[in-house]
Amino acid sequence: MFAKLGRFSARHRLWVLATAVLFVVLGGVWGSGAGGILGGGAGLDAPGSESAEANRILAGSLGRHVPDVVVIYESPAMTVDDPRFRQAVEQVAARIPKDAYVRLETYWSTGSADFVSRDKHKTYLALQLPGATEEEQVVVYRDIAGLFDAPGLTERRGGLTAIGEQFNTINSRDLSRAELISFPFLILLLLLVFRGLVAAALPLAVAVVVAVGSLSVLRVVGGIVDLSTAAINVVVILGLGLATDYALLILTRFREELAAGRTVDDAVSRAMGSAGRTVAVSGLTVAVTLGGLLVFPSRFLTSLAYSGVSVVLFAVLAALTVLPALLRLIGRRVDALRLPLPWLRRDRPQGRRWYRVAHGVMRRPFTVVLAVGLALVTLGLPLLGVVWSRPGEWAMRGDVDGAAVTRQLAEEFPYDPTKVITTVVRMPGPATTPGAQAALADFTRRLGRIGGVDRAAVTGASGDLARITLGYSKSSYGAEIREVVARLRAEPPPAGATALFTNRPASIADMLDMIGRGLPWMLLIVVVVTFVVMFLAFGSVTLPLKSIVMNLLSLSAAFGAMVLIFQNGFLSGLLGFTAPGFLDANMPVLIGAVSFGLAMDYEVFMLARIREEYLRTGDPVESVALGVRHTAGVITAAALLLGVVLAAFVTTSVTVIKMIGVGSVIALLVDATVVRGLLVPATMRLLGRHAWWAPAPLARWWLHHGLPEESISTPPPPARHPTSTSAPA
Asked: Which residue windows are transmembrane per the record (predicted)?
């Protein structure tokens, strides 16, 4: 099938390329508007959770009674008692349209000392925005963001909504800079890996088609469902990485076939029948892995699923159609404009070191498996002590407004108005009757006595609903405040009443609960699909199990390293961040999905070549060494190219983006070197012919319905197993 598709694209190359160019032009115009329809806010909350339901109720007549924006005004010369200070702040308050806020408070409107810093040179304006969700509040905030300037005073903007908007702005700016930094290095590496200008340009051509197609899909999907701005970032990262990976796999095989003396048409056909099949199998696995993020209902993770799947599908489509058309058009000129570097001569035998390493590993396979396995498990042990949270001001530099406001409210003011847990109580009858008020007062006292709660008061009632506001001083993101939330939720409400808790600590607890519930389902989807796809590709039930275990080991090692670096602060000075003491729980989900998919990409590519050599020679040891020799260098190069793009994220000032870069690079390095170079040959040597084993009924089914290598027709020698048979090609 894939060889036929390659021949079709090569035969109709001009039509294929003309269609691709037309698609890039029209799709580029259409897809360029994708960013404008993506929603604001982080999109991290858990829809349908207790905190989300409480927010929905509070958006009604009761009101949320918590500031979304806190603007601190400071004067080194004036104190808040100076009439000029008061006039400047009140002019700002009067300037904000009344329909842009639900509640606006200042020191002078409340008379509360909570609004004044201890040195009296600072005060804040607290603004509650309309809307039940962060996304709705961001829209309002953007409309009034230019109205907070007070002549003669310095202002800094904080609060959850302002912090989220600052996070997105800084994130977009830093990612654009990271892309500019990585692009020259990527071009240089492409030239070194592909050894010529013409060949190096092919992945970039595929990447353009992938990016345009993915942005077009996002604009369509974004018009139907609410997507996060993070979707654009995924398109950029994955699009360039997968385009490079897939082009490298196919182009390497195309060059091999040309070097073997085949015609251009035959080289395209055979390259697509082998490497093209690998790309399709890998792409399907990566797409389903990323699609597994849909089990999490948060807008952030579902956006990553939509954007990631669209990127992968377009990467596969472009690699299977546009690339063979380009290869047929260019033909033997693929090696034109070569770099005059003597150490890159193609007449040198390639992969000899990997070949020797593979044989060395297979002489002591059990020792290698035991040593590498223990090393990976040891690296993953810090994961047992991980503390999960969500992004916030801690993820930004200390001089950014949101981080500075949070620090000033904690250190210089008597009270931080954003550190509030709101309780919505639905009484069995009207909440304003004397009996109901007495019951609410008793419930409020009990809540106020729970450790970690500094203030507790009934702050509103409407119909059968009442609102209790609880103040705290602990970090909003750590495990301690979530223990407080758990104790609050365990406190019995008044007889016949129900109580719901919301705001940052409660919403973080609900988010972590959502991820915890969805993670087993995602793992199940990934494991089942990986098993099915690899069985279809190789006709073996042993290989999928081996691959899944090895990939999980490498991922656990990467996550353990992330705990050491970002939670415990190891290398924090070198990487330029302050360790917050916890990790963003969304990042491992994203890194795990992407890294697992890419690991399967490399796994399928290497095993396909090992199988090809096994079918040709029937030698389970030599076939592994030859397969590693032909693919290990390509896999290392592919991981290096993608690693350059991801490593540029370490230069960003947002800690969670650094997490993506560091975590993904570690996972790539471990997989492309330790796993592919050591674990694969060692485990294949231990398995021997049984690596290709399947029960007899499955082996017979695979003979008629599987996806064997199209360029190979010789069946493998049968595995010696009393109740099974091998699955030949």
From this structure: 180-198, 205-225, 231-252, 279-298, 304-330, 366-388, 521-545, 552-577, 589-610, 631-650, 656-679
